[in-house]
Specification:
- The chain has 18 helices and no strands.
- It is mostly helical.
- Helix 13 packs antiparallel against helix 16.
- The longest helix has 40 residues.
- It is globular and about 60 Å long.
Length: 476
Amino acid sequence: MIMDKITETRPQISRPEVNGRTAIHRFAVELSETAKLAWPMVLTQVGQVAMMATDLAFIGRISTEALAAAALAGRFYVISVTFGVGLLSAIAPLAAQAFGANNLAAVRRTLRMGLWTALVLSFPIIAVALRAEQILLALSQAPNVARLAQEYLFGLGFSAAPALAFLAIRNFMGAVHRPQPVFWITLSAIPLNALLVYILTYGKLGLPRLELFGAGLATTLVNCGMFLVGLWFAALRQPFRDYHVLAQLWRFDWRAMRQLIAIGTPISIASLIESGLFWATSLLAGVISTSALVAHQIVVQIAAILFMIDLGVGTAAAVRVGHAAGRHDSAGVKRANLAAMLIGIVIAAMLTLALIAGRFEIVELFLGRSARDSEATIGLAAKLLIVGATLFITDAAQCIAAGGLRGLKDTRVPLLFATIAWWLIGFSLSYWLGLKVGLGAIGIWIGLSIGTTIYAALLVLRFRHLTSRSLMRAHH
């Protein structure tokens, strides 16, 4: 029976009062289940970064200007899809709660509306990508760079629809505790993407040399392939086939869509707030000096890679908390979040220690030592890695706490916290310490670290408040 197949993926937890040894056993089981769910999600996020890095590596062999244009176009594209990514991330907690309640129809409706959302959102994203040159020129970018960026986006822009649809499938598979197919699809796509980018960019196998357009087109073709394979798994392979995800695909469910928008929109806005914060602090660093800007950007890139790992664990937290909330297991909700928090902070702490130990070598990977004036930049970036150590760990805490709150369908209050902690406190401190006090880029990162720490603390307190309130209701 389908119920038997589904319950195989959940730890079997009894309801009566338990002694300390049983509580430890339950937490150990939760820790194991969370780790099994998180690792393919984390590696999938890393795989996405690897694909983007592959594109830039091949484009960099065309010219330095082409690389700059592709990096600019990539940032332009990422900002365009950020809203969609945030909106579709609501699929994970919604489907997870339905899964925990054994409501298969609700799981199916959530994915169906996610696929509809991906399709609808792709149209404005593609339209903006096709007009990127005019937009970049209006933002005072160099004409040739804007032209090359447009060339890349002519090929890349159409990947929005399959990429967002694949994200919807990815969130669905994670919600039903089966993220492994998405991981293997992503892992297989990395070498395929590299091969196609190489062939189309440089005109191999008798094909014309398409350069930047070819690199973008290759990524679009790979995204189409990933979506089709993901859809095949979701529709035809066990255990996903029992959900009948393509049943009544053309039926529009307004209730499910309203839920998706209500929970996903605050996530999207919070993502834009975070992106805007790092963009604004880059402007502050640019005011200080070119060296400060370069050092700042290097540490931002490192933080972005660590964030991808945090995001994988945070998604696992959303799923595990959603499962427990769906079966009305208040103690299980707290266990799920605590297990994810422990895993995420341990990983972040280990990576942070490694970054501090090898900070000079890591920075040199970005800059090299070809120019003598890079010595000051290398030294400053190495100092920023030490200053940012607190941020790297508290960023993991906030990401996982936010994931736990998403599992409880709580996204509006975290959006308010993000505005207060990151902008009113974090950015204000960055501006004051960096430009007014005169600490430069170090002051900027002190402000970012304080803002992120406050945000993490607020989210943790919010989660404790909600779970304590639900436990009190359960006892009464």
